[in-house]
Design brief:
The chain has about 375 residues and is mainly beta. The chain is about 5% helix and about 50% strand. It contains 1 helix and 35 strands. The protein has a 7-stranded antiparallel beta sheet, with no helix packed on it.
């Protein structure tokens, strides 16, 4: 074989080996994901292969958002939050009693001196000084905020009100609309114009073109015998006239939304589809969300956790003490008092056992370089 040919073959082999390392035989991308784990009472971060990225050292660490993760030192009233990078280094020191994740370049934090909320940039500088009694994260360029002795409104990134304070309560914008409460709940657009509503006792966020709303039944608003929920589109209309009613509704994820009904004095959970009908009947004690094609559910009879598919049938039978979402083909489950990551066959995917563990998150979604 000529020297040049041997070089080309060698390069091809190296590239193939690197690809095999990044993409496992089962199609996983372990280097492209990370998960939070607890060892010896402290939280750290691993990648999808189980390799340690941040040694356990924090009393808690949140998911990475826009390249930074909220991390806590201390417990209870002595707890302080800051933000760390993917090496576990403090980018913003732990000095705040409460923080929210970074969103659109800013993070809401509660100032330890004034006890008011403001917004930091990624370097820890206040871009919007603390002046709010409450504040939520930015979404679609606006953040719900409330000054002391005032109503809720929406501010822009200069800290000025884009929508004047006039609401009892307010949610973040999602898919162009936000739920707000004056007396009952309605939906407004980014200009503050009411799009529809005025009769809901509660309302959720839009996701996949639908939002859950609650309405009183059997009595006047606030004194109803029962509240039930259903889904509406962006015109405020149910997808169709349906017979199914739920006591509780979550957000749509992959066309399925958690929904609960009371049966025999117990609250049972199933899943509604985007049309507002029960695609999976209410039969579980608790449910999580559909992710990676499966959903963790707590069996009504045994109390154990397992995983179902979109048809509601068990893919992994209920045998776990607790379980969380599948991401990149693996999920954390609790078995025999400790947590381990399993694959979709129920086999152990990562050998280490943890005191606690959270679902994997992609580096892309976390705002980290691949």
């Amino acid at each position: 074989m000529h020297r040049l040919a041997r070089v080309v073959v060698a390069v091809f082999v190296v590239v193939a080996l690197l690809a095999c390392k990044r993409f496992s035989a089962k199609g996983r991308e372990p280097a492209a994901h990370l998960g939070r784990v607890k060892v010896g009472g402290k939280w750290g971060v691993i990648d999808g292969s189980g390799a340690t990225l941040i040694p356990p050292q924090f009393d808690f660490i949140a998911d990475f958002e826009e390249g930074l993760a909220g991390a806590r030192v201390g417990e209870g009233e002595a707890a302080l939050w800051g933000f760390v990078n993917e090496r576990g280094e403090w980018v913003i020191p732990a000095r705040y009693p409460k923080t929210r994740p970074f969103s659109e370049g800013l993070a809401a934090v509660r100032d330890p001196n004034s006890k008011l909320w403001g917004f930091l940039d990624g370097k820890g500088t206040f871009r919007i000084p603390p002046r709010f009694e409450f504040a939520l994260s930015f979404s679609e360029g606006l953040a719900p905020a409330k000054e002391p002795n005032k109503s809720w409104g929406y501010i822009d990134k200069s800290g000025s009100y884009a929508i004047a304070p006039r609401y009892w309560d307010a949610h973040r914008h999602s898919e162009g609309l936000a739920a707000v409460q004056s007396d009952s709940w309605s939906f407004i657009d980014r200009s503050g114009k009411t799009v529809f509503g005025g009769r809901y006792t509660s309302a959720g966020r839009f996701r996949e073109g639908r939002a859950a709303v609650w309405i009183a039944a059997g009595g006047r608003l606030g004194t109803a015998v029962r509240r039930y929920c259903y889904f509406v589109d962006k015109n405020g209309k149910p997808p169709h006239t349906f017979s199914d009613q739920a006591d509780g509704c979550g957000e749509l994820e992959a066309g399925r939304a958690p929904a609960s009904v009371k049966s025999g004095g117990q609250l049972l959970w199933g899943f509604m589809d985007a049309e507002g009908d029960f695609a999976i009947k209410a039969q579980f004690r608790k449910v999580r969300r559909f992710s990676d094609g499966l959903c963790a559910v707590q069996d009504h009879k045994s109390g154990a956790w397992g995983f179902i598919g979109f048809d509601g049938a068990y893919v992994l039978r209920p045998e776990y003490e607790a379980a969380d979402d599948f991401v990149d083909g693996i999920a954390p489950v609790k078995r025999e008092g400790s947590w381990v990551y399993i694959d979709k066959r129920g086999e152990v995917a990562l050998p280490t056992r943890y005191q606690d563990a959270m679902p994997m998150v992609s580096r892309k979604a976390a705002g980290l370089p691949l």
